[in-house]
Amino acid sequence: MSAHPRLSLNQATIKYAPLAEALDVAREAGYTSFGAWREPVAEVGLDRAVELVKASGLRVSSLCRAGFFTAQPGAARQTAIDDNRRAIDETAALAAAGAPGSAPVLVLVAGGLPAGDHDVVGARARAAEAIAELAPAARAAGITLAIEPMHPIFAADRGVVSTLGQALDIAESVAPEVAVVVDTYHVWWDPDLAAQIARAGASGRIASYQVCDWMTPLSADSLLSRGYMGDGHIDFGAVTRLVADAGYDGDIEVEIFRQEIWDAPYAEVAARVAAAFDETVAPFLS
Amino acid sequence: MSAHPRLSLNQATIKYAPLAEALDVAREAGYTSFGAWREPVAEVGLDRAVELVKASGLRVSSLCRAGFFTAQPGAARQTAIDDNRRAIDETAALAAAGAPGSAPVLVLVAGGLPAGDHDVVGARARAAEAIAELAPAARAAGITLAIEPMHPIFAADRGVVSTLGQALDIAESVAPEVAVVVDTYHVWWDPDLAAQIARAGASGRIASYQVCDWMTPLSADSLLSRGYMGDGHIDFGAVTRLVADAGYDGDIEVEIFRQEIWDAPYAEVAARVAAAFDETVAPFLS
Question: What is the reported pLDDT for A219?
Fold first, then answer.
């Protein structure tokens, strides 16, 4: 079997597979790239994860995810900053362990409103400050901090950075090495999408392109309303053309949170992802 | 009992009350204004609805809702346009029947992507075309078409107009009498909210201000994740100040879709709404 040379299987799509098995699934399905998550890495320990990645021969396309730094100044915020520093080191180690072409990219999710806090403007400012604080460590480690704007459905409880334009405002205000993630699920609805993807490309700030579909009706757990590309409402041709025209030529991760997919055999999922990618995304890559 | 002089009870907050009972509930709870919906009006017929509104002594703050005109050219689109023309007439009749200070405002929701259609840009363009087509009839009837941008959670299946900025782009491109609705539930997350509310105010385009809270976790039916102001995540002080500073001095509707609230006694809901309004919104009105 082979998969598209730019296709990366994100660990979250086969969420229940331990790291070793997830890497095997990807390789056996013909993938050459893998998007890692911190939790399965932590389960085996970073040293063992590095060994597994080396042995897999796969590229590492990103590490998901750190961030969650909207707490008010104090212990909770410091805990978050410390955790993000560890994530930077993990990203560097895993990218170095991956095959050539691995991307030293750490995906950052801002986090939601602290309990009882209604000030989304303030929470966004704190997220920007945290990213600024982390930028020197990222620079020193040679990794890219990639801010992932999240669909406004998550603004209250998961990610207060809601648009690509806002993520770029933060990135540009902080440092050259801070970039953004374009995830179709989060950004497809944005009326300003074309302009903001072009803007991100012009400053070399597209660090990751992730794809999955927006399904309706939403799942009862709305976090899990993602689906295979082509099963929902997103125009992957349109978004992929924008990303390609903006100069992004890195790996493209398929990251799907959906209970039925998590419950399916991993190999079947990997094959289905590769087929959906060939049909919906690959034809629009320049 | 009395309620704040600018507070309007939107029919949808007591969804199961027939029109006559809903008007009674509002008046008995001390409201002076009522936000009407088309379905309960249709249940009794427009003539009878006009009588009921006249007898109530209440202002009518808006009629919800028409729109849903994203279909491709053809029979479905024509049906939608015809229905919107009827809604314009209904709005004029109800506003004329309401007490002085009634607002001849018809709330428009764009509608979602037609089945199988992935082109959100095209659907938005068709919505704008439909509004342009309806503008002369609205002008002739002396009513304001008010575009309600919907939270991006609804972009696929209910409303492709996703931001206040986008609604204003459409309004400005169409005609002076086309305006917008600022609904906290739909717009609270928008990083550009302050600028867009100011922009709407500067051209006199805030036709309606609606309030309710964004609750998490989302309800299994995410449409019903609204709540009483103060129970969720929205900063009503911040948004209300923006709307007041933008010059809006009309009625403010409380419109809550939530199963527990629909299932509660109407009078209890009306009282609770008035109390929440006094606490979260009223202090920030200029």
Answer: 85
Q: Helix %, strand %, coil % for chain B, to 5?
A: 50, 15, 35
**Nearest beta carbon to residue B233 from set A124, A156, A191:** A156
Whether B166 and B199 have beta carbons less than 8 Å apart is answered as no
For residue B264, the one-letter residue type is A
* Structural domain span for residue B213: 7-284
- Nearest CB among A152, A232, A234 relative to B151 is that of A152
Q: What is the CATH number of the domain that holds A35?
A: 3.20.20.150
pLDDT higher than 90, residue A100: yes
pLDDT tens, residue by residue, A159-172: 999 999 999 999 99
- On whether residue A76 sits in a domain, the answer given is yes
Nearest to A239 by CA among A281, A273, A203: A281
- Structure confidence at residue B220 (pLDDT): 82
pLDDT at B286: 73
- pLDDT tens-place string over residues A137-196: 999 999 999 999 999 999 999 999 999 999 999 999 998 889 999 999 999 999 999 999
Q: Is residue A221 part of a domain?
A: no
Whether residues B190 and A152 touch (CB distance < 8 A) is answered with yes
Q: Please check whether residue A227 lies inside any domain of the structure.
A: no
What's the first-to-final CA gap in chain A, in angstroms? 23
pLDDT per position as a tens digit, A238-249? 999 999 999 999
Instruction: Give the ipTM of the model, two decimals please.
Output: 0.94
How far A145 CA sits from the closest chain B CA (Å)? 21
Cβ of B191 under 8 Å from any chain A Cβ? yes
Q: Is the dihedral of CA B270, B276, B279, B280 positive or negative?
A: negative
Helix (H) or strand (E) holding B267: helix B266-280
Residues in A closer than 8 angstroms to B121, CB to CB, are 238
Helix residue ranges per DSSP H, A57-205: 75-97, 120-141, 164-174, 184-187, 193-202
Distance from CA of B152 to the nearest CA of A (A): 6
User: Chain A residue closest to B188 (CA)?
Assistant: A120
How far apart CA B14 and CA B263 sit, in angstroms, is 9
Whether A196 is covered by a domain: the verdict is: yes
- Name residues 105-144 of chain B within 8 A of A (Cβ): 113, 118-121, 124
Residue with tokens 């995540």: B233
Q: Which two tokens stand for residue A200?
A: 């991100």
State the total domains in chain A. 1
- Note whether A162 contacts B: Cβ–Cβ < 8 A: yes
